[in-house]
Amino acid sequence: MKLTTQTAEIIIIGGGIMGASLAYHLAKRGCTDVLVLEKSESLGTGSTGKATGGFRTQFSTEINIQLSLLSLEKLKIFHSEIGIDSGYSPQGYLFLIEDEETLNKIRAVRQFQIQCGLNDVVELSVSEIHKLQPFIDLNNIIGGVFCGSDGFINPMNILQGYTNKAKELGVRFLQKCDCQSFEVLNNKIVTVSTSLGVFFAETFVNASGPWAAEISKKAGLDLQVAPLKRQVAVLQEIDLLPSTLPMTIFLSDGFHFRVRNRQLLLLRSTIPETSNPFDITVESNWLKTTHEIAKKRIPNLKHSTIDIMASWAGLYEMSPDNHAIVGKSKLENFYYINGSSGHGAMHSPALGQLLSEEILDGKASTINIHPLRPSRFDEGEPNTDLHLL
Fold this sequence. Notes:
By secondary structure, this protein is α/β, with parallel strands linked by helices. It has three domains: 4-53 and 155-224 and 320-376, FAD/NAD(P)-binding domain (3-Layer(bba) Sandwich), CATH 3.50.50.60; 93-147, no CATH class; 226-318, D-Amino Acid Oxidase, Chain A, domain 2 (2-Layer Sandwich), CATH 3.30.9. It is 29% helix and 26% strand. The protein contains ten helices and 18 strands. The strands form three sheets. Strands 1, 2, 8, 9, 10, 11, 17 and 18 form an eight-stranded mixed sheet that branches. An eight-stranded mixed sheet has the order 5-6-4-13-14-15-12-16. A hairpin with a 2-residue loop joins strand 10 and strand 11. Helix 1 runs parallel beside helix 7 and helix 3 packs across helix 10. The longest helix has 18 residues, at 344-361. It is globular and about 65 Å long. The model has no long low-confidence stretch (mean pLDDT 97).
């Protein structure tokens, strides 16, 4: 392919759900001279396409609750605004508790959530849990919390919707375009050199997901975002459990499951066996252990089998405090929209709007995103999270 030299007002590096959301929200405000550079042949082949599609408002920090509530508002009108179904289905998130200490902490979190405007989280007794989720072994469960407005989304639909609408408004997307280096002059990026040529812009945005630190390093910056493998086991049998069930999460070890397209997805947070941070192979030991845990907790799965070929792994983009890093970097015209730590797909509608406000207006106005500022780690002010939800 012929190398080119192009210009744009804003260049976004990364064509996943976050980059597409930002591109759309910029264009919606009239800033249409936007160029999105994606290294892959297709959009959404990174973390967006690997996401399981959970959506929740149940968090233990105000900023994450606010991001979820704003995203929820936008998801409810997504079809009328964007023209595509976001897949939002309010089936709920059910967190299961097995000890009194955790139960007391969750009760405190629930009171905090109410103060933050999240009013539909309810504490459930064991009998109430059984009515909502009758397929699990409740012998070790002492209680739970449930939010009915939580549920599921379709990240690829959201990506497609934002991409299509952004293109209609004049945004350009360029695929198979790998970022190689930046030219930095007087504390500003002047150009980005790529596999398809050199591109000039007034403003640059890092929306490259798990690869964000590598992109920032090319600009001489140390961005504290690291990839973390997360694996998904898919059961071979269909219709083992009803598709209407909520996302169900055991807080003691993070094991959780949901039904998607009639198949059961099993998930469990563990430290990957590989030393390669970008490895996304599914580990056989992980599959076996996760399946055994599932069969003990869900009696219906006693004779189930893992579909090894359908199971997959993807990458989270983790920040030191498990909160997104959004805003201007140490360079005057280079912005971050990174590090959502597993919440990127669900928070992409909100974060795209908020960063567009900061870029165009100098400050986000819909929500105060000061807690997400990139400088917070250097200032010794990371977000404090109970790491329960």
